[in-house]
From TrEMBL:
It catalyses: a 1,2-diacyl-sn-glycero-3-phosphate + CTP + H(+) = a CDP-1,2-diacyl-sn-glycerol + diphosphate. Keywords: Cell membrane, Lipid biosynthesis, Lipid metabolism, Membrane, Nucleotidyltransferase, Phospholipid biosynthesis, Phospholipid metabolism, Transferase, Transmembrane, Transmembrane helix. It is a multi-pass membrane protein. Pathway: Phospholipid metabolism; CDP-diacylglycerol biosynthesis; CDP-diacylglycerol from sn-glycerol 3-phosphate: step 3/3; Lipid metabolism. Belongs to the CDS family. Its main location: membrane. Pfam families: CTP_transf_1. One of its GO terms (molecular function) is phosphatidate cytidylyltransferase activity. PANTHER family: PHOSPHATIDATE CYTIDYLYLTRANSFERASE. This is Phosphatidate cytidylyltransferase. It is an enzyme of class 2 (transferase). It comes from Chromobacterium piscinae. The keyword Zinc does not apply. Signal peptide: none annotated.
Length: 268
């Protein structure tokens, strides 16, 4: 399984980097929407939407994304505040209470609340097809990748105390600690190389990295709970060794949305 994961990653990573650094703005919007809409399709399957409803849901979502791109829509203060409330208050409560997945209209709204802010963040962190903007977005995505990889190997090596055994038995507190340490080192390197144009001292960036790491973990746990509630192991089988697209971006959608909201509201 590990070899399959690595081989798939060796294909996906160059594709993502090529799109990030080489695509013009319109192509990047379409590419990032493809990522998001595939995850939204997997989410729709998890909440039990019928195939016709899935088609309607994805069509409406794509029409909205097209209108947003053509109309140059961007998220505003209220929407950013709602994103922070979702990920910093509602999701932790959801995990603590282990609420079941919604159905009907609440399920539609939840899917949009999870996925659409991430897509806007893909665009707003990279407003122009420049290397500077691409590096800034890569730095944010890199935080998620570093946290995920560090948590996996730290958990494998030192994991003793379960983080959320009723949701994801394989995750441990030791994995979280490893993620925090590695993310701190990563943020120091990113700051040294000047990838992020954020006027904060290093200690301020490190102070922001801790809650973003926690948000990354919550995004992962939320999708794990969705899968457990739906009785499935992977969101789909689109990515060999990795499961589905939502499996790969569950933490990323959370960190992108929260970091973009913090930046827009003056916190970054």
């Amino acid at each position: 399984m590990l070899i399959t994961r690595i081989l798939t990653a060796l294909v996906l990573l160059p594709l993502m980097l090529a799109a990030l650094f080489l695509f013009p703005a319109a192509a990047w919007a379409g590419f990032s929407w493809l990522i998001v809409v595939l995850a939204l399709w997997e989410y729709a399957r998890m909440v039990g939407m019928s195939v016709p409803r899935q088609a309607c849901y994805l069509a409406l979502s794509t029409l909205f994304a097209a209108a947003a791109w053509l109309g140059h829509w961007r998220m505003q203060g209220f929407e950013h505040g709602a994103v922070l409330a979702l990920w910093l208050l509602l999701v932790p409560a959801w995990l603590a209470k282990r609420w079941r997945m919604p159905s009907g209209l609440p399920a539609w709204l939840l899917g949009w609340a999870l996925m659409l802010p991430a897509w806007f963040a893909f665009l707003e962190w990279r407003p122009n097809a420049t290397a500077h903007d691409a590096l800034a977005l890569l730095a944010v995505m890199g935080l998620v990748w570093v946290a995920d990889i560090a948590a996996y190997f730290s958990g494998k090596a030192f994991g003793r105390r379960k983080l959320a055994p009723a949701i994801s038995p394989g995750k441990s507190w030791e994995g979280v600690y490893g993620a925090v340490v590695c993310v701190a080192i990563y943020v120091a390197l990113v700051d040294h190389f000047g990838w992020l144009d954020i006027k904060l001292p290093l200690w301020g960036l490190l102070a922001l990295a801790l809650p973003l790491t926690a948000v990354s973990v919550c995004g992962d746990l939320l999708e794990s709970w969705f899968k457990r509630s739906a009785g499935i192991k992977d969101s789909s089988r689109l990515l060999p060794g990795h499961g589905g697209v939502y499996d790969r971006i569950d933490s990323l959608i959370a960190v992108l949305a929260v970091s973009n909201a913090l930046r827009a509201l003056g916190g970054m």
